[in-house]
Design brief:
With 367 residues, the protein is an alpha+beta fold. It is built from 12 helices and 14 strands. Helix 5 crosses helix 8 and helix 6 packs across helix 8. The protein is globular and about 60 Å long.
Length: 367
């Protein structure tokens, strides 16, 4: 409790959590000021006001030539583009990736329909425990671990490695979630092949290492926020896994850090955003980079919707360790990260609020 003001933060957090209404419920109730535990410190908010004036968007890569053709020269060009984007940006937008726009639109519509339901209907899916597996709806995965809450709600479904019981998904978006998992995984497989080739590995190496198998789908909703200058949609962080595939509607808000600048990511119709996670940076021995990104609180009356699938490995090495791939190491290019255990990886993610490259910093070999 704040002794000076009589403000009991934990009590307010619990009341919000136990109401199961999420920020969408708060927004729909017509509030004009946000609860205090959503307010971020001035230094965070000052940084959120900075965005790039020189960069207009992340790289856009057209995959049509490899989806529709076996032309080797075309493929080499795309491999080079993907490699360059993963090295210098950690992000790119894929267009002409083989998934029909109708499927993208249906997925966005279905996730929006879930979040638009009355909170009493969504409440039966509301959970706080973060077990691996199953389906949960929640507001702020790290509500009790983060210093300040963020203005978003999420529907989360573990799609693999154990097949999800389809009946566990909310009926309103069930078919679309299953279909999107299949489509996004196909895109992720294509991208992982290109990333492998960019490292000089066999195209199927990441698939063989089970990097497509552990998948969690998260449907985020960033509803209208009455005081967007006081809070954030999602705080600045890097993703912990191998790669992430993100589908978003036309409401902006995503920003990516490039050098010292924050770049506004403009949604491209039919585009999918791909980004590298910390795990990919480690196993590529720093060749590919995971990059900070964040989402602004939404000042638009229309909700921002994003559907993210995080891809991760399901099978660790027999000794329980992981680190830079041995094929990428040589006397000229020694490992810059030490090996780490499954336990370290999981504890690092679930032991605190979302953050930036904390595992990478822990396992970096100091020269």
């Amino acid at each position: 409790m704040d002794a000076n003001s009589g403000y009991d933060r934990m009590k307010e957090l619990k009341e919000f959590d136990e109401s199961k209404m999420g920020v969408k419920g708060l927004s729909d109730s017509g509030i004009t000021s946000i609860p205090r535990f959503f307010v971020h410190p001035p230094e965070t908010l000052a940084d959120f006001k900075k965005s790039s004036s020189t960069c207009t968007n992340i790289p856009i890569i057209d995959l049509s030539s490899i989806i529709n053709s076996k032309d080797t020269d075309h493929r080499l060009k795309i491999v080079e583009q993907v490699k360059e984007a993963a090295k210098t940006w950690g992000f790119f937008q894929a267009i002409n990736h083989g998934v029909p726009i109708s499927v993208l639109d249906e997925t966005i519509h279905a996730i929006k329909a879930f979040h638009d339901q009355p909170h009493e209907v969504k409440a039966k899916f509301y959970k706080r425990e973060n077990e691996i597996g199953g389906v949960m709806y929640t507001s702020n995965n790290d509500l009790y671990r983060a210093k300040s809450a963020a203005w978003h709600d999420s529907l989360q479904a573990w799609m693999g490695p154990e097949p999800l019981k389809v009946a566990d998904l909310p009926r309103i978006c069930r078919n679309e979630v299953v279909a999107w998992d299949k489509s996004a995984t196909e895109v992720a497989e294509t991208v992982m092949e290109l990333l492998c080739e960019g490292l000089g590995l066999e195209a199927g190496k990441f698939k063989e290492l089970t990097f497509l198998d552990a998948r969690v789908l998260v449907g985020h909703c960033y509803p209208y926020c009455p005081q967007p200058d006081l809070t954030v949609g999602i705080t600045s962080h890097t993703d912990p896994g191998v790669i992430t595939v993100l589908l978003q509607n036309h409401v902006p808000g995503l920003q990516v850090k490039h050098g010292d600048e924050w770049v506004n990511v403009k949604p491209v119709p039919g585009g999918l955003i791909i980004n590298a996670g910390d795990f990919l940076q480690i196993i590529s021995n720093g060749e590919y980079k995971s990059v900070q990104h964040r989402v602004l609180a939404n000042s638009s009356k229309e909700s921002r919707i994003s559907i993210v699938i995080f891809f991760n490995l399901s099978k660790w090495k027999e000794d329980g360790y992981y680190g830079p791939l041995p094929e990428l190491l040589s006397p000229e290019k020694p490992a810059i990260y030490r090996n780490f255990t499954t336990q370290e990886y999981i504890e690092n993610f679930y032991g605190k609020g979302i953050d930036t490259k904390s595992l990478i910093e822990k396992i970096k070999i100091q020269n």
